[in-house]
Amino acid sequence: MHFLPLIEAKREGQELAAEQIQEFIRAYTAGQIPSYQVAAFLMAVYFRGLTTAETRALTLAMRDSGEVLQFPPDPRPLVDKHSTGGIGDKVSLPLAPLLACLGFRVPMISGRGLGITGGTLDKLDSIPGFQSLPPAGRIVELVQRVGCVIGGQTERMVPADKELYALRDATATVPSIPLIVASILSKKLAEGLGALVLDVKFGAAAFMPTREKARALARALVTLSAECGVNTRALLTNMETPLGRAAGNWLEVKESVLCLDGRGPGDLRELVLACAAHLLVQTGKAATLAAAHAQAAACLDSGQPRRKWDEMIAAQGADLAAFAGKLARDHTAPVVAALKAPAAGFVARCDARIIGEVVRDLGGGRFTKEAGINYDVGVDALAKIGEAVPAGGVLARVHAADAAQADAACARLKAAFEVAAQPVAAPPLIVETVEPAP
Ligand code: URA
After folding, report:
1. Does 245 participate in catalysis according to the annotation?
2. What confidence category does residue 113 fall into, taking pLDDT thresholds of 50, 70 and 90?
3. Has 183 been annotated as catalytic?
4. What three-state secondary structure class fits 187?
5. Domain 335-420, what architecture?
6. How much is the pTM?
7. Does the C-beta of 114 come closer than 6 Å to ligand 1?
8. Residue 2 among the catalytic residues
């Protein structure tokens, strides 16, 4: 098959047949199409878009480019959550054991961070001994036994997305809604899920800068996912300001454990419980969102998910004694410095984008996929919008590899905060729920 006519058709805005898209993905994954032609195709899609039928064909072809997890029959529904990514977004970590304790199976396939947004796998890799890349067979076995796994995509899962995503990254074609939908859902569908909750973020530090764009992406995701047989809802959440009080790999693991211990920040708990509550309703385990929320909160507060967390990380190789020892330390980075409020007042702004950039530049994130990261650096003790601070009160603590980097980070962080004389209301976190049209 020659791909030039397919590129020409898309360039002219014509609709491609499902078979053409399937053949394109098959041949591309087999290395039979030069990447310059695929790049041209992606740019044509970027400008012309894809119809719902084309997006569906692309998503399913990408899912089927590799292995799909196969689970034995079991009364526990298979569920997952996906976030489009943000600063301090560690929801997956407490959510997976909570869902397992609520009677779900959770094959949570996660990714690494790139740029300013952190990645769940990088966070987990800061745990001594933790193995974030179990093979597919082991993922199924662990989900069946423990109830939850958080791991990376295996070599054989959705190989088409690995190739395409790298090419999109290099050809400025990432921000195309049909390409994003196919990329996200091909991976989620490869988990064999029954229900999915999506956290689609908007704001300065999010993939989608505005609420309108986030809503458009959420609608496209829930519609196609539901069409593919997965009961799906999306929450639109605010990413102007970080989630929780910590950003940085190990610092976020620590905060996740605090959440499981009932001592975490309110916004993190709110989002964890909301995701769990929606899944309880979506799977018929609760009749109303209010009842589901109460059920999820009671489960979290029982301490059972905290024990499930230990069981999950131990099953994935973690050394629990070393983990507990690390948790007990105030900091693991060599230097900690505090940014202090110049005057008393109320926190009016805590800019997620600046904080994300500072954490990345401290070594907590990466500029290229291949780069290494420093797990111990980051920012914690972040003051939240609306909180009162005294003059000299801590706005944030910086965890750095050396004093010079700590000083530079504190200087840059000043621009992330605004302290107002008058009280300020905290902005709502979850602003909308998007469901498939009935
Ligand atoms: N996350 C993905 O997995 N794919 C995209 O295209 C964008 C965000």
Report:
1. no
2. confident
3. yes
4. helix
5. Alpha-Beta Complex (3.90)
6. 0.95
7. no
8. no
